[in-house]
Amino acid sequence: MHTLAKITFTETKLALRSPAWVISGLLSPTVLLLGVGAIPALRTESEKTPGMRFIDAWVPSLVVLTIAVMGLQAIPAVIAAYREQGILRRLATTPVHPAKLLVTQLIINVTVTIAGIGLLIVLGSAVFDVPGPRHPLGFLLAFVLGTTAIFGFGLIAASVAKTGRAAGGIAMIAYLPIMFLGGVYLPRPLLPEVIQNIGAYVPPGVKALEDAWTGGGAQPLQLAVLAAFAVGSCVLAAKLFRWE
Fold first, then answer.
1. What span, in angstroms and rounded, lies between the C-alpha atoms of 237 and 182?
2. CB contact at 8 A, 34 and 119
3. Shortest CA distance to 60 belongs to which of 39, 33, 79?
4. What is the DSSP letter of 244?
5. CA-to-CA distance for 42 and 56, rounded, in angstroms?
6. For the chain, what is the mean pLDDT?
7. Which intervals hold domain ABC transmembrane type-2 (predicted)?
8. Which one of 112, 142, 215, 236 has the largest count of C-beta atoms within 10 Å of its C-beta?
9. Are the C-beta atoms of residues 33 and 55 closer than 8 Å to each other?
């Protein structure tokens, strides 16, 4: 544990020296929320979002954005770059198993994800009076399962890519449709119903997040599908992963 703590401290310092991913994960969703919230029409109830304002309904999609950026862009790029630079290979010859470096990267990026979503919730409430999740436990469960599934996809990209640039390209195969189905590019109420239904079961589970945030709570089937994706992606990443 002492070794893991030292590696985590070192990797955190390195991440802060080149903080592009940290800043993106922390600030991008909140900046988008503040920008959209500055438009008066989006702070009023519409026929597309009955019973709530557009800005209230869009927050779960910004949660999707945070998870996708850190899980499908940051993690693959960093880990594949370490393989490309031979860092993982060199660690494999020392008493420090390279798996600890992998765990450290997961700790850092998940922490940034949680901090970014926390900042989104706090400022959304303070500036625009956006309500928090109506079902906090359901939201937390959907978040954990969805984040695990997305980070598993990111590790799959990192597992098969030989360079950081290649990892980013491979991860884009999942990143772009997840952002679209999650309502980041186009708000979910404006998407065709069939697309909304597909997005309801694709990680990181925007419909489960929405239902826990604004509705009656995440549905068991949604959570079960997210759990299956989470287990499947992590198992596949473990089978494909190579240190060299």
1. 23
2. no
3. 33
4. -
5. 9
6. 86
7. 20-244
8. 142
9. yes
Is pLDDT at 1 greater than 70 in this prediction? no
Q: Which residues lie closer than 8 Å to 81 by C-beta, 6 or more apart?
A: 163, 164, 167
Q: Which amino acid is at 211?
A: D
CA-derived radius of gyration, the chain: 18
Instruction: Give the pairing of strands 45-46 and 49-53.
Output: antiparallel
Closest C-alpha to 113, from 79, 81, 71: 71
Lowest mean pLDDT among 31-35, 69-73, 84-88, 171-175: 84-88
- Amino acid code (one letter) for 196: Q
- The answer to whether 16 touches 25, Cβ cutoff 8 Å, is no
DSSP structure string for 31-59:
HHHHHHHTSGGGGSEETTEEEEEHHHHHH
Q: How far is CA 236 from CA 81, 97, 150, in A?
A: 20, 20, 13
Using an 8 Å Cβ cutoff, are 24 and 15 in contact? no
Cβ 6 vs Cβ 24: under 8 Å:
no
62-75 per-position pLDDT tens digit: 999 999 999 999 98
DSSP 156-211: HHHHH-SSHHHHHHHHHHHHHHHHHHTTSSS-GGGS-HHHHHHHTTSTTTHHHHHH
Cα distances (Å, whole numbers) of residue 190 to 109, 182, 187, 213: 31, 12, 6, 19
What is the CB neighbour count within 10 angstroms for residue 235? Answer: 11
